[in-house]
Each structure stands twice: as structure tokens, then as C-alpha cells.
Hints:
- The structure holds 2 protein chains of 2 kinds.
- Chain A folds into 3 domains: about 1-45; about 45-80, no CATH class; about 80-315, Orthogonal Bundle (MetI-like fold).
- Helices cover about 65% and strands about 0% of the residues of chain A.
- Chain A has helices at about 15-45, 70-80, 80-115, 120-130, 140-150, 155-165, 185-210, 215-220, 225-240, 240-255, 260-265, 275-285, 290-315, and strands spanning about 180, 180-185.
- In chain A, helix 1 packs across helix 13, helix 8 runs antiparallel to helix 9 and helix 10 (about 240-255) packs antiparallel against helix 13.
- The termini of chain B are far apart.
- Helix content of chain B is about 45%, strand content about 15%.
- Chain B is an alpha/beta fold.
- In chain B, about 50% of the residues are buried.
- In chain B, helix 2 (about 45-60) links the parallel strand 1 (about 35-40) and strand 2 (about 65-70).
- The chains are: A mainly alpha, B alpha/beta.
Amino acid sequence: xxxxxxxxxxxxxxxxxxxxxxxxxxxxxxxxxxxxxxxxxxxxxxxxxxxxxxxxxxxxxxxxxxxxxxxxxxxxxxxxxxxxxxxxxxxxxxxxxxxxxxxxxxxxxxxxxxxxxxxxxxxxxxxxxxxxxxxxxxxxxxxxxxxxxxxxxxxxxxxxxxxxxxxxxxxxxxxxxxxxxxxxxxxxxxxxxxxxxxxxxxxxxxxxxxxxxxxxxxxxxxxxxxxxxxxxxxxxxxxxxxxxxxxxxxxxxxxxxxxxxxxxxxxxxxxxxxxxxxxxxxxxxxxxxxxxxxxxxxxxxxxxxxxxxxxxxxxxxxxxx
Amino acid sequence: xxxxxxxxxxxxxxxxxxxxxxxxxxxxxxxxxxxxxxxxxxxxxxxxxxxxxxxxxxxxxxxxxxxxxxxxxxxxxxxxxxxxxxxxxxxxxxxxxxxxxxxxxxxxxxxxxxxxxxxxxxxxxxxxxxxxxxxxxxxxxxxxxxxxxxxxxxxxxxxxxxxxxxxxxxxxxxxxxxxxxxxxxxxxxxxxxxxxxxxxxxxxxxxxxxxxxxxxxxxxxxxxxxxxxxxxxxxxxxxxxxxxxxxxxxxxxxxxxxxxxxxxxxxxxxxxxxxxxxxxxxxxxxxxxxxxxxxxxxxxxxxxxxxxxxxxxxxxxxxxxxxxxxxxxxxxxxxxxxxxxxxxxxxxxxxxxxxxxxxxxxxxxxxxxxxxxxxxxxxxxxxxxxxxxxxxxxxxxxxxxxxxxxxxxxxxxxxxxxxxxxxxxxxxxx
Lengths: 321, 430
């Protein structure tokens, strides 16, 4: 045996080379494309930084890109600048969007999953495939299709409304139209987003329902429970771990929605559908206001983290079946 | 050191040495083979114009190959903003004149043998050359007079169907609005299906607002151009007039006709707008998308006040990267494309744009090729440069237009909008 092949730390030299060979590219990839941008964003949020301006000698920081400390965060809270006002509007819209999408999504997917679960296995697969199709459809395509449906003059929805003798609605462009205190445009994009997204949760719920032992339901029925009682008192409690996962994932995707909004409304009318990710995108890549966009990104991360922790606290389970 | 390492080291040195033997940056168009990159934003007619210029230049200088790389408009802005600080832009970049001073530190000044500031001011109209001169230094050459003010497309069939005289005979804006009222069409539910006069789009709305201020005797710049003055009686009068077109004249529905819902160019060429306020550059785009569109005319709107004073962007043109290894050839191409009148005119005709060179604007060849443009020519001497703003697109598209749209959609009052425009536009000076 050669000198280099000596065993060290429980590993042979060849094993160490293999481990280094496969892990170094991965670490470089993660470091370069995730860690570095993350650290850079953490630095930028304390600067009024724009790559358009020629800043100081070190990474363009300083000089025309001055250090501003926590000014961005102070401005977000109490500032009167256009960026600050749009940030607050976007944050409010994002919360409305996320907290509307989650219950609506659950209200559609959970009963639908229970219905599909109750049909024959062969038909079940067909339904699953049909409902999952929008999930794998391009968001831009979905946005364009819904845009046509909502078209004020030629859209299908208004054609139906006209046919029924009603007054057509400018679904995506009327800033004065509201429903339950939320703009109609926001409800319209929520509907489009739900249509695209609900298949994902549906498949998860179907899988979870299949995992619940039949004995639990049978025992409840022997004790005299009807179908509704079995669903609400046996099935749903046993779905709690799945519910937690679905709630967290739905919230995460709702907070980060971008493409469907940008194509359908681009934040219009009157910023009523402007969500935080769109706000960050506009500031960062349209107006090169990178420092502000980085600070906004941190706020979004904090909001998402807080909502996720609350969900985990409320829906946690300490049992298995 | 073993033999393999030594071989690798020597090979590396050899490659480095060869890299150092590239042609010098002082190569002339007649020197060895040279390849330059040209960046432009995507617009089929503009691209066709550039390709013709590239082919003509290659014919004159067979050793020079210019490759055109295109980006859609918003991607182009982002690409410029990120590539320039990194020094990775193309040798020649298409610039919108009004942006140029914002990038001046990252663009190559024009060499005196290409053109001096004085020569440029003599060759071009004031508005288009204005944006290319920053601190008395020339940073590129304009190719077009980017006029967004005052011109409208008129649908002849709709005019005749409404029993109106064609071509229109307008003396005042009231004449325009009277025609527009007769041209409005609604469906059984009362929804506007054809706008009589559609002016609600970013550029037409913003530029007619600025022209309205000037023609009423006001100004949106303070005395030394260090801030904006939007909250003025002249601005209020202009905005109130715009609102009256919606509330009193009812010639356009701002909810159904705006930049997001139904862009004015598309609305006109798809038969949803009878009179559409837009720059002449939209004509060739519209005819490309709607080749079977019937007869139309391009007419100039009456002005308010004594003279049709208006402001214009310093339009599209070409600049050179200071990082180009062949700046001299790049500048030679820019001069060939934008300063040789015959070439510049061909580009204008292909792209359906108004020439930046007066001699070309007044040429019979242009009048024959683009008859609708001739209507605009009488206005050109009244055009002023918009002025160098900290962020022109933000001021025009994120501040002025959205607030005016809010007023027209009646979710903001005139006073609220003017106060907001004034405060937000001035906040861009930071």
C-alpha cells in the first residue's frame, strides 16, 4: 500500500478524494449562487446603492452609493417617499393575497380530495391528472388565458354576464370596483392563481387521505358517526401534519407570487395588485434601487418566517399513526 | 517540479503571449478582420433599419463584421444598467438620448474627428441632439426626432361612417372633441367599444401634459433645472382639461382604454379607437401587425396658446463603449449610420421615424415614403429637449402617467395628483 492511501479519520485517501470531488463543486455552486447573493443583499440593505452610479473603490460601496444604516427600514415604516408608500401598499396587498388564497385553496382542495378519494381507483387517476394539469402549465400562459377571460369587451366572463342581462365588469382595470373591501382586480388575480395552484395541494391531500387507516373511520361509523362527522372528527384531525405542510407551502408560494401578477396586471389598477415581490423586482431591476430592494427583501423574509412559525405553532402535532 | 507541471506552465505562458498579440486598439476600418457587437432594443422595423446599415457598412469595409444583438425593451434597460458597470456592454450600444447623460461616465466621448459638439448642434435638430451633449461633451449621435406630442392617427372608414368630413378640419381642440364624440361607439350594455379620442397611454398622456403646461405659459422645471414645478396653475388647467375629456366630453373610458388594458396603438389598429394619440413610429408597427388595416391618416392636433411649443425626448441613437477594443471603427460606424444623411434617411424610412437631421426631414424622399410624417414637420422647430432628469422613465412612467390616470379614473383629485407628482418627481433628485 502506498503512503497516500493511508487511513485517516476512518476514511481511505480515495474515499476522501471522492468526497472532495463531489462536494466541492456543490459547495462552490451553493456559495456562488446562493450564499454570495444572500450576503451581498445583507450588505446592500445598509447602503443607498445603485449599480448605475459609480461608487467607492470597494465593490462600488460608498461615494455615490452612501452608507445609510437603518434608514431604509425607518423610511418603510414612517416615510413619505414614493418607494415607502408603494412598499406599504405592496405589503398590505401581499398579506391580503396570501391570507385570501390559503383558506380558499383549502376550501376547494380538501373536500375535492375527499370526493376524488371516494371514487374508483381508475377514475381517481384520471381526475388527479386533470386537476394537476394547471400546476404544470406555464404561469405566463395561465396569466394570458385568464387575461382573455377577463377582457372587458371581448372576454368570456363578460359575455356570460351580458347574456344574463347583467352589466359587464372591468375585472382587471377598474380601480373603483371592490368586493368585501378588496379590489375586484385582486379577487380576479386570486381566482387565476387558485386555478393554477390548487392541483398541487389536491394531490397531497389525496395521498394523505389514502394513508389514513380505514379502521379509524370504520370504528367511528360503528359508534354511530355519519359521513360528515367522520370527515370532520376523524379525517381532518388525522390530516393535521399534512395540513401543516400544505398551509406552510401555500403561504410560501403566495408570498412569492410574481409572474402571474406581472403578466395580468403589472400591479394595476392604481397599485391594487402590486405585491411585494413585484415591488422588489421593480425597484431592483427596473430602477436599479438595489439597496432599497435588498431591505424590502429582508422584510419579506421576516414576514414569511413569522407567518410560518405561527402556522407551525398552531398546527403542530406530537403524535403519529 | 515534474515535467507535466512544467509543460502546463509553459503552455499557459504561450497562450498568454498569443493573447497579447491581438490587433491593437488603433485598428482602422481597413485593417485586419474586426468583429463588433451592436446592442439594440427589439422593434422589427428598427432592427431592419440597423441590419441594412450593417450590410451597407460591411460592403464598404469587408473586413468589419457587425453582429446585432437584440433585447426586449425592459430587458434592454436592465442589461445596460447591469452590463455597463461591469464593462461588458457591446462595442456600439443603441441609446435613448434622454438616458445618455445618466450613463455618460460609462460611454466613450465622441472624438473630434468624428464630430464636435458645435458640428452636432448644426447638423441636428435641438431636441434630438440635446440629450447626447453632457457637460459640453458629445456621447453619441441621434438617429430620430422622438416626437410623442401632437400627432394622431385617424380611422377614415369610421370618420365617413359617422358622417364627418375627412380629412378632419380642426381649428381648436373643441373641434377634435366634437368629432370624437360622434365617433364613440358603445354596446347594448353601454360599454364603450370604440373610443372617440384615445390619448391615455404613457407617452401621449405625459407629453401632452408637459406641452399643455408650456403652451399655457408655465414650465415644469425650476429656473436652474435643479427641481420640478408641477403644482402650478398651468399644470392644474391642463389636467382639468384632460379630465373634462372623460367627464364632460366622454370621448374615452379610462378604465377600458389605458396602457395596461388596451394600448392605444393596438386599440387603433384593431378598430377600437377612431382617433388615437401616438407618435408616428407606431404606424409601421401597426401595419406590420395589421397589414389589412384600411385607410388612415396622421394629423396634427391644434395647440393651446400662441405657439405649439412642446418637449421631446432626445430619441434613439448610437453610442460607443469605452471598453471597445475598436473604438475608432465603432465611431466610424456610428458616423456612417447617423451622420451621413443618405444612410440616416434610409434608417428613418425603414423604421418610420422622424429624422434628427432637418435636411432629411424636409426631403421629398421622406415625404413620398412616409407621407403621414410630413404633417408633423411643421411642428419640429417648436420642439425643446425634455431636459436631463435623474430618472426620466421613473418620472414619466411611474409618477406623471399613473397620477394622471388616477385623475381620469377619478380615484384621485386634480389637486392631490399635482401635489403628489410634484413631491415624488422632486424626490428623484437625491
